[in-house]
Amino acid sequence: MTSKMSMPWLSIAESANKSIQTLNNYALTEAIKAFSSLADLYRIPGYLDSSGLLRLDFEDGPVSEDISPASATTHEEAEPVVSYNTSAEDVNKANQEYLDYLRTRTDEVASSILHTDFEDGMDNDVTLLVKSFARKNKSATYNWLDELYSKNLNNSIVVEGILRTLAMITEKGDENILLPIVVAGLRSEVSVEQEAALMVIEEWRTKECLEAIRSVHRYASDMIEDYAMMVLGELEEELA
């Protein structure tokens, strides 16, 4: 999952397809089957530019707050400068360079997740750090989160932390981009992963989330099933 991506820059949908094709993982495969196709899942109005590339909305000026945790700021390599050019070639280059940078932080961030306490609805060092990544380059950050999840499928603590991070950092309108990760968590047989996925759905509250939760027929415990039914009932009433 850490091999360098070819140019031009792959869209989120293409990246997810390639990641999923290389995984021998029942949960993630079944997650994608819950939807008609990845192409439909990622067809978000206004999110792609005229060339079919993911549009980036960079913030003006530098990030003013120091939000990197001590455990995640020791890497010697300087973070690349984000380009503000808007041509397809420049966007592709900026995306690839930032993804390459984030890949150097993968093991470091996974270790930070292992040593971080996640509280419902509360930011922590990990969520603040990932938010800073997304502000600099949202497209690359979302691709990197997909890779981070795929690389840690067998580590429930990291998977739970990634899911809880998604609930805190995903911008409104971007939920479907990372929804396959959440559906995979819903279909996991590990209770903490299912619970974290339900927390994301409870935060996002989209029609696609409702479809996802309806597709799950087995839960790791009665407590998780009760939680799922509560969220399902809320969404059905809210989105009817």
Question: Can you walk me through this structure?
Answer:
With 240 residues, this protein is mostly helical. The chain has one domain (12-239). It has helices spanning 12-21, 26-33, 38-41, 88-103, 106-114, 125-136, 138-151, 156-169, 179-186, 191-204, 207-214, 222-239. Helix 2 crosses helix 9 (179-186) and helix 5 packs across helix 8. The radius of gyration is 17 Å and the shape is globular.
List keywords for this structure.
single chain, disordered N terminus, globular, mainly alpha, 12 helices, 240 residues
Basic shape: globular
Terminal CA distance: 39 Å
Give the oligomeric state.
single chain
Low-pLDDT stretches are 1-76
Biggest sheet overview: none
Order of helices and strands: HHHHHHHHHHHH
Question: Can I get a quick summary?
Answer:
The chain has 240 residues and is mostly helical. It is built from twelve helices and no strands. The longest helix has 18 residues, at 222-239.
Which helices and strands occur, and which strands form pairs?
Elements: H1 12-21, H2 26-33, H3 38-41, H4 88-103, H5 106-114, H6 125-136, H7 138-151, H8 156-169, H9 179-186, H10 191-204, H11 207-214, H12 222-239
